[in-house]
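User: structure tokens for this one?
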Amino acid sequence: MRIDLSGKTALVTGSTQGIGAAIATGLARAGARVGVNGRSEESVAAAIERMAIERIDDERIDVERDGGERDGGERDGGDLVAAPGDVSTEEGCERVLGALPHVDILVNNLGIFGARPALEIEDAEWRRYFEVNVLAAVRLTRAYLPGMRERGWGRIQYIASDSAVVVPKEMIHYGMTKTALLAVSRGFAKEAAGSGVTVNSVIAGPTHTGGVEDFVYQLVDRELPWEEAQREFMRLHRPQSLLQRLIEPAEIANLVVYLSSPFASATTGAAVRVDGGYVDAILP
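Assistant:
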């Protein structure tokens, strides 16, 4: 299956690192023009430079794997463009819309998480998690969906989590926001019905990012080497995982790129799992 997103413009929120960066890179490799988003111009510029270098290295590996010959029809990939702005605020959202007035693919990836005893989560923190993890995505959907409907094509995705279904006791405020995203996604899919625009959520499982490494070390012995700490974390805190390891960001990105493509035209209103079998259910 060869996915070609040439001519499409995408925005991936929170894409200067981790899962967001992997998604932005994957969409660009498929030919899309991708807006890289972060709160500051400096962080976005540094991320674009890093992604460009990584993509050159990936293409070099592909050429070597093909014996030094490249298929004449192979794409060079799409452009990475800067779209800085804190989309958890109205002002930041307007800044991003100024950089990318129209997109064909919107990936609402921005999210924050952290461990906190349930009874110690204060009102301000509940509001902050909702503003960042939910309302930012709603705001951008409201801005971009009308244009997608008018053009008769579009893809909107919300990066949810296994925590939406299996709410962890150590961060129920985070779990609450991811559950909300499933409802938001399903609701906007109904709003887009019959228009050629699909709206889905992606239930990502425990994933290996820098932020997750910090989170793991909040819960296990900080003196442990990373591989050992990861195994201990999965054994004690995520024993349901059938993968029995953390998922790599590129594995999440692969599903997002597929859902962004014409091949996924009949998938909408869905909560699609790339969770390593973590959620113990036959249906999502």
